[in-house]
């Protein structure tokens, strides 16, 4: 007998091995096989009684050991892996490496049941949730159920604080009662501790938490538990939870579906958690529910074209009104010198008033560190990272001042004099650290906390900041986009965005979409029971159209506007966009390889292929980067297109013309 084995590496295709004829080996079992001079653990993909005539029997090696009697990777999983390998154009070995906890691929790890676990009974205890559904939530539930009859994917478009979580919880309960499994995806698990606590109270030991911050050993145990499926389960997790061995999924929820953190950028598979979740639901005949206050343009388009259903919740919980939005023109403020550091006079005055009333305030600046760069006051030179084409960010912390690259982490000391001309260096712009300094100085009696990547690195640090803010031990919370996500605080009356412009000036066709989503989400943190919250936005460009939609909380209007722009300039969802990233340590080699690749692409794809473009950051970690975009019309057979592209990449790699060059296709670029 012969088997095809998937090995957990970035190698194309599968490897064939021989097993004893009487061995009843199943697809999905783990085997130990020889590879060159090593032994590796792989997953059986297919079994054959006869060898393919294309292979030479004398070169096929024997399997070293078989680790499982029963499959530990289900047929459904293998199907999903194959789909991902095709769809995201990466070796199936890359999918395996992303899908299974490392410990599962350890030959010592056993899937056999221990005696005490066998007693696990099928016994459902769902604690009653104290929350009753509101009329609006009841309506949404019925609506979603009705729409599911017709469309398997439904968008729950509910404004911030409309109580989507309660709707999810009720729908999950229904599925558990029917003996089904539920997958509840959240964008970043570290940011949703409030949610997990809540779910834990409702679902108790039915709840399984699965994400990359859970240790690998624990993830392996969770994998085993889902594989057995002794009882109905709800798994709450980040995107990697789509890889669990579900057997009987009834419902997949993708909360905050617009979040870009669902996308895995590196390494391959460069997948989008939302797309894989929808495919997973489809495979298992489960319902899918996408929830958000600020839907992605893609999802809105799928609703518009009738592919997805849509249910709306327009009222906020407990009659809360959507916050009032005030813009402050920074040009005018600076011109009149009505600024305290980076806070305008009117903002300072409003903060003082709210503090006097005993209220809490959130200040949003989507830039961590003290300042984004230093510059020589004479010759204008800016200290750059030695490994990347970016300026170094200034940090000022208890451990001292230093410059850091936010792409590779390289650090160096602060320079007081310019290395080129010896003149004085000045700090430009501001990040959360500088804002914290200024705020502490302006409001000495207020207690101030900062929430960003740097202040939350320590274990539990994130949780501690959230707790002290929700217990009102902190008056002013300063933060990056971390503060925009799914947090609810009763006493926050004022939210301020310190410099909205940085959100618009991103080199991506999604930059307005992201800016709108981020501003609407951060605005959603303002307001408490019975009182309208306020959002103050400081900007150099108060006439930017995004603000018109934001002021009216007009997601539909915003969608119509962006839809038109995307259609006019042919961006997703009006085309299939594929990005090819070419990398090499030597700039000329990168450029030459990209030009070679483009030549082959234009032969096949013609005008669909862009010129070779340097991305906004042309070098990261000493690799020079070039990009080519393919825009394939929606009416064209994209599967065929990807096959043709795959063929070009294969031929190019075989020709040796691009030896040592990294070429990465991304079929769902963000
Ligand atoms: Zn200088
Ligand atoms: Zn760097």
Give the topology.
Layout lengths: L1 E5 L8 E4 L11 E6 L2 E11 L12 E2 L2 E2 L8 H13 L4 H8 L15 H4 L16 H14 L4 E6 L5 H14 L3 E5 L7 H11 L3 E4 L5 H13 L5 E4 L11 E7 L17 H11 L3 E6 L4 H8 L4 E5 L10 E6 H6 L3 E2 L2 E2 H12 L3 E5 L8 E4 L16 E5 L2 E5 L6 E3 L11 E4 L3 H11 L5 E4 L9 H10 L5 E4 L12 E6 L3 H4 L6 H13 L10 E6 L5 H7 L3 H14 L6 E10 L2 H19 L13 E2 L2 E11 L4 H18 L6 E5 L4
Parallel strand pairs: 2-5, 7-12, 7-13, 8-10, 8-11, 9-10, 11-12, 14-26, 17-24, 17-25, 23-24, 25-26
Antiparallel strand pairs: 1-2, 1-4, 3-4, 3-6, 15-16, 18-22, 19-20, 20-21, 27-29, 27-30, 28-29
Helix pairs in contact: 1-2, 4-5, 15-16, 18-19
Summed up, what is this model?
The chain is an alpha/beta fold and 670 residues long. Helices cover 31% and strands 23% of the residues. One zinc ion binds next to loops.
- Strand order in the largest sheet: 9-10-8-11-12-7-13
Low-confidence stretches: 115-119
Bound compounds, each kind once, are: zinc ion
CATH superfamily of the largest domain: P-loop containing nucleotide triphosphate hydrolases
The radius of gyration is: 27 Å
User: Tally of extended strands?
Assistant: 30
pLDDT averaged over residues: 92
Beta-strand portion reads 15-25%
Q: Could you say which structural class the secondary elements and strand pairing correspond to?
A: alpha/beta
Q: What composes the largest sheet?
A: 7 strands, parallel
CATH-derived topology of the largest domain: Rossmann fold
Number of domains: 5
How many helices? The count is: 19
Shape: globular
Level-2 CATH architecture of the largest domain: 3-Layer(aba) Sandwich
Helical content (DSSP H or I, runs of 4+) = 25-40%
């Amino acid at each position: 007998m012969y088997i095809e084995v998937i090995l957990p590496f970035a190698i194309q295709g599968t490897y064939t091995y021989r097993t004893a004829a009487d061995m009843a080996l199943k697809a999905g079992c783990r085997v130990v096989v020889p590879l060159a001079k090593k032994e590796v653990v792989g997953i059986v993909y297919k079994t054959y009684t006869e060898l393919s005539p294309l292979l030479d029997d004398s070169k096929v090696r024997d399997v070293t050991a078989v680790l499982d009697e029963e499959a530990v990777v289900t047929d459904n999983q293998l199907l999903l892996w194959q789909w991902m390998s095709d769809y995201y154009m990466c070796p199936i070995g890359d999918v395996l490496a992303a899908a299974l906890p490392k410990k599962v691929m350890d030959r010592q790890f056993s899937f056999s049941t221990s005696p005490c676990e066998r007693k696990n009974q099928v016994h459902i205890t769902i604690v009653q949730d104290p929350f009753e559904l509101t009329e609006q939530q009841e309506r949404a539930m019925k609506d979603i159920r009705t729409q599911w009859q017709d469309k398997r994917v439904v968008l729950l478009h509910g404004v911030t604080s409309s109580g989507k979580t309660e709707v999810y919880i009720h729908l999950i309960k229904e599925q558990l009662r029917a003996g089904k499994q539920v997958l509840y995806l959240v964008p970043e698990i570290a940011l949703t501790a409030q949610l997990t606590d809540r779910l834990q109270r409702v679902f108790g030991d039915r709840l399984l938490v699965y994400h990359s911050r859970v240790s690998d050993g624990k993830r392996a145990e969770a994998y085993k538990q889902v594989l057995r499926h002794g009882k109905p389960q709800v798994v709450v997790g980040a995107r990697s939870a789509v890889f669990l061995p579900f057997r009987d999924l009834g419902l997949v929820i993708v909360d905050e579906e617009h979040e870009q953190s669902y996308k895995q950028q590196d390494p391959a598979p460069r997948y989008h958690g939302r797309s894989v979740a929808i495919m997973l639901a489809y495979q298992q005949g489960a319902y899918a529910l996408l929830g958000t206050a600020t839907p992605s343009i893609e999802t809105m388009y799928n609703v518009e074209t009738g592919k997805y259903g849509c249910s709306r919740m327009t009222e906020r919980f407990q009659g809360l009104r959507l916050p009032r939005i005030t813009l402050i023109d920074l040009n005018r403020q600076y011109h009149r010198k009505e600024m305290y550091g980076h806070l305008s006079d009117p903002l300072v005055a409003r903060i003082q008033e709210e503090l006097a009333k005993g209220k809490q305030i959130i200040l949003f600046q989507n830039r961590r560190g003290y300042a984004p760069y230093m510059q020589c006051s004479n010759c204008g030179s800016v200290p750059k990272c030695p490994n990347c084409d970016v300026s170094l960010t200034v940090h000022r912390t208890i451990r001292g001042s230093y410059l850091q690259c936010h792409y590779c982490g390289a650090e160096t000391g602060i320079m007081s004099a310019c290395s080129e001309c010896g003149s004085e260096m000045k700090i430009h712009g501001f990040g959360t650290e500088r804002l914290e300094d200024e705020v502490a100085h302006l409001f000495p009696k207020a207690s101030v906390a900062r929430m960003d990547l740097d202040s939350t690195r320590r274990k539990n640090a994130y949780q501690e900041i959230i707790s002290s803010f929700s217990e009102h031990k902190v008056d002013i919370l300063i933060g990056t986009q971390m503060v925009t996500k799914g947090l609810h605080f009763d006493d926050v009356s004022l939210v301020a965005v310190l410099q909205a412009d940085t959100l618009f000036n991103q080199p991506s066709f999604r930059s307005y979409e992201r800016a709108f989503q981020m501003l609407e989400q951060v605005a959603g943190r303002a307001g408490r029971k019975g009182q309208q919250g306020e959002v103050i936005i400081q900007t150099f460009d108060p006439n930017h159209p995004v603000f018109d939609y934001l002021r009216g909380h007009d997601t539909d209007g915003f969608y119509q506007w962006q839809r038109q722009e995307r259609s006019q300039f042919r961006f997703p969802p009006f085309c299939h966009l594929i990005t090819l990233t070419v990398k090499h340590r030597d700039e000329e080699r990168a450029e030459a390889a990209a030009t070679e690749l483009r030549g082959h692409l234009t032969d096949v794809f013609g005008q669909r292929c862009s010129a070779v473009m340097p991305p906004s950051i042309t070098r990261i970690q000493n690799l020079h980067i070039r990009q080519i975009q393919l825009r394939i019309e929606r009416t064209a057979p994209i599967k065929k297109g990807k096959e043709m592209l795959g063929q070009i990449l294969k031929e190019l790699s075989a020709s040796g013309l691009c030896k040592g060059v990294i070429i990465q296709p991304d079929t769902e670029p963000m």
